[in-house]
Amino acid sequence: MFTKVLIADDIDFNDLGAAQILNELDVLEIQYAKYCDEALLKIKKAHLDGAPFQLLISDLSFKADHQLNKLNSGEELIAAVKKQCPNIKIIVFSIEDRAHRIKLLFDELHIDGYVIKGRNTIYDLKRAIQKAYNNEPENVSPELLYLLQDKTTREIDNYDVRLIKYLSIGISQENMETVFKQEGISPNSKSSIEKQVSKLKIYFKANNTVHLVAIAKDLGII
Amino acid sequence: MFTKVLIADDIDFNDLGAAQILNELDVLEIQYAKYCDEALLKIKKAHLDGAPFQLLISDLSFKADHQLNKLNSGEELIAAVKKQCPNIKIIVFSIEDRAHRIKLLFDELHIDGYVIKGRNTIYDLKRAIQKAYNNEPENVSPELLYLLQDKTTREIDNYDVRLIKYLSIGISQENMETVFKQEGISPNSKSSIEKQVSKLKIYFKANNTVHLVAIAKDLGII
DNA sequence: AGTCAGATTGTGGTTTACCGTAAGGTGTTG
DNA sequence: CAACACCTTACGGTAAACCACAATCTGACT
Lengths: 222, 222
Description:
Largest sheet of chain A: 5 strands, parallel
Protein name (chains A, B): DNA-binding response regulator, NarL/FixJ family, contains REC and HTH domains
Keywords (chains A, B): DNA-binding, Phosphoprotein
Domain Response regulatory (chains A, B): 4-132
GO molecular function, one term (chains A, B): DNA binding
Oligomer: homodimer
InterPro entries (chains A, B): CheY-like_superfamily, Sig_transdc_resp-reg_receiver
Strand order of the largest sheet of chain A: 2-1-3-4-5
Largest interface: A-B, 36 and 36 residues
């Protein structure tokens, strides 16, 4: 079993539960971080000291407060950690249950497991840690495995996400052409953008653009 | 101090932390509920048995799963509980930090305290329980008190919320007139609706309607 | 190079949104 | 009841979104 584990979670309440599980799994050294930056720092330090963490259990959302942080989400933390220590195992542990966001974690950040905080957390997290240790693939709870099958989320690519994102921050379709050209995003003609928005509306069964953005927000796509 | 407390939270992980705090406060009887319906049932039963709960600590969001529930949010649970047992004290305990939603809890459901799940949860919840026991007003953490001062949320009334809500589910301004008349919402002329949407856009500094709805969703207004 | 399918862009017309202004209603006050 | 402010509704013009169709470009294959 892992011997040195870091838990990154901004809710102090969760430490107790995590500690209990890791004790049951006979993990010797457990450290905690309440901020992303703090977590990265600890991982870097341990790495330099020649006693690296073997597992990071991280939440996704970290509340902003008076402390200024460079990293402000689990995604950013994980990307930074992977860059620094590619060998560390990473399990994400969050209440987020929207397939799209979770899918991205596996596909782009190559995490080693995902546990939804819920009614069976204690059991699920324990299993996930064991699976991560044994390098088992598809390290998610059964209900999530089902969610990840959902096509809806797979057929929405980065272009779509950025398009909807820009719509949601008030860029009109008129101006989208200019913005896309500045950002080097293609296709970027007014006509193409209209067409793509229209496709997305059909795809998500949205009556209009307002509806589309609301749906995308609900699904966690933006 | 309270002697009988119910905790309604669907994340099993949180039970440990809550139990620790309540033990420190010498609360004798602590019960847990993972579903809203379950929580209401326990409260009803205790009431009928002549040994009612004195305090309910409830989360706001409860995940849906295979179990069908009549009540599906903390708000619904609290409304139902208040109806049944007006004397029970209620503290809401959630990660929700958006002023608008919290404000509604105090103004319409008359809760006795609010604690944001965060880095100081253990301290904050303990204080909140003591304050609720002593009937102290404004039972929130200092940072939240500041948030609740924010005017933004006070000046948005029910009409605005419904308007934005309908926009977000794909009702065009064209059709809003018909919908509002059916629902008995007034004013309902196309002109009035246009005007109100326009006001809201100015208020929230939104470039267009899409942007407005996105902002409203981010603020937790809808 | 030539062909072709599919993607991208362009164009014109229709609908909806947007915005200013004016007309109509309602309630208050002297 | 006249005067007034304020709210609601109506109207008209402009801009943006929407939609169908046509033109152009692109890359793969022969």
